[in-house]
TrEMBL record:
Family matches, as SMART domains: CheW
Gene3D superfamilies xrefs: CheA-289, Domain 4, SH3 Domains
Gene Ontology BP term (one): chemotaxis
Pfam families assigned to the protein according to its UniProt record, in alphabetical order: CheW (PF01584)
Name of the protein in its database record: CheW-like domain-containing protein
Domain CheW-like: residue ranges: 1-129
Source organism of the structure: bioreactor metagenome
Transmembrane segments: none
Length: 135
């Protein structure tokens, strides 16, 4: 995720389920008085998928896009850093991509392999459209 969208990371907070939300929205949580949705990206990228719990998540990554807060569940945050704009390979054809690929901002290589950087704005708009039942 590009750092410009990241507000903070926090230890997992209690999540309250809300009926009739899309399956990828695990529920809502209260972050210092702000009620924010909690998203499972694995279910979002799988097109909604099935609710198959696979253990506990360690943290929430809180994001802000267009003034709206939302959070994504994470197993862990391995590193936070500025990769430098020149390292981003934005050679992705978003017009012809589908599924997970249309939410990728760029890919870069570091000493440990390939790092995929998600586009916070595309992700926010995709989740908003999906929640509203729009294509």
């Amino acid at each position: 995720m590009e750092l410009r969208y990241v507000v903070e990371t926090v230890q997992s907070l209690p999540v309250t389920r809300v009926p009739r939300l899309p399956s990828f929205i695990r529920g809502i949580t209260n972050l210092r008085g702000n009620i924010i949705p909690v998203v499972r990206l694995d279910l979002f990228f799988d097109g909604g998928g099935t609710e198959n719990e696979r253990g506990e998540y360690k943290c929430l990554i809180v994001l802000r896009c267009e003034g709206h807060l939302f959070s994504i569940l994470a197993d862990d945050v391995l590193c936070i850093g500025d990769m430098g704009k020149n390292l981003l390979d934005d050679g992705i054809d978003h017009a012809n991509s589908s599924g997970f690929e249309k939410y990728v901002r760029a890919e870069l290589t570091d000493g440990d392999g390939v790092v995929t950087v998600l586009d916070g704005e595309r992700l926010f708009h995709g989740m908003t459209r999906e929640s509203a039942g729009l294509p």
